[in-house]
């Protein structure tokens, strides 16, 4: 009985609230109805009916305003009720595993099967993931010490991958928990590359700086009054500053190439003219090293899409290396021929030296930054260890590729495969 009375009181309060929210509308309507009653001579019955209709309209207007929101909420609720946990897990791109209070797998999505394999409902997570960090994560969640936690986890097989694993409870008092694996492998790889790059660049700069600092100290001390030693040390210092300047220029070139990975369309390069310019610019270096540069160019137009300055830098780096490291062979051959790839027309530019060659184990890594086949020889030849890396970046921008063939004692051939369109 008390509940009935309470319910009636609640309805009455709701009705009163609706009337209060529409008090201005009611007031205006009452004034209008009484005006019609007094001035138009309407009957009392008409007056009562008009007042009742006005009150009903005021209450219905509030309900009508609420109907769209209520209908939207009802549609949303019914849609979510039709979704199962399996569908929601499948919609997650990252590996996801749902487990219960005993660390037993209840469900794993397709991404989890692809990443880890061998997963099945009823399997123990503790047995599947034995790493200490994963055990600690599961223990913390299942013990109720934390509602959510995350750790870094590395999966060794079949391919090493690093994940950021997040664990949390599902809902309230459901007895279910979820693991989500966010793949961090590419991010970690880039971080390692960046750290290695900075370390290598710092090392390459530190060596000449240490040399210059040592010679300055000597010139200010024991060699202060020794003209011969002073001239010798100043020459060495000049060489070292030139080495640092070349390194900085190459670092800036790499940075610019990485900032604009896509080639501007619509420009064409005449290979014959460009390579002739490269040969002319390196003629003094070839003469200094006792190397003769020979040309073997195909007939007809040799035009490819690309950036002339960047391709000039590619052939300049390759030809300069051939003159420096292949000087014992006495000559270098630069040839342009039709591309050998039948699927895509183009041109092959080959720069071949007849020097000591490159051992097979070095060829796959020779375009890496700061990688050197012979450190002492490279530094003696004023190399920075970045030239072939710059070549690779430029050719990637031109949808081109570099192939290297070499045999120890018989020289090396660097071939640039350029598409014609």
Automatic annotation (TrEMBL):
EC number: 2.7.13.3
Pfam families tied to this protein: HATPase_c (PF02518), HisKA (PF00512)
Domain of life: Bacteria
Gene Ontology molecular function: ATP binding
Keyword ATP-binding: yes
Stored PROSITE patterns: HIS_KIN
Chain ranges passing through the membrane: 24-57
Catalytic activity: ATP + protein L-histidine = ADP + protein N-phospho-L-histidine
Domain annotation Histidine kinase: ranges: 200-421
InterPro entries noted in UniProt: BphY/WalK/GraS-like (IPR050351), HATPase_C_sf (IPR036890), HATPase_dom (IPR003594), His_kinase_dom (IPR005467), HisK_dim/P_dom (IPR003661), HisK_dim/P_sf (IPR036097), Sig_transdc_His_kin-like_C (IPR004358)
Alphabetic keyword roster: ATP-binding, Kinase, Membrane, Nucleotide-binding, Phosphoprotein, Transferase, Transmembrane, Transmembrane helix, Two-component regulatory system
Protein name (database record): histidine kinase
Source species: Mesorhizobium vachelliae
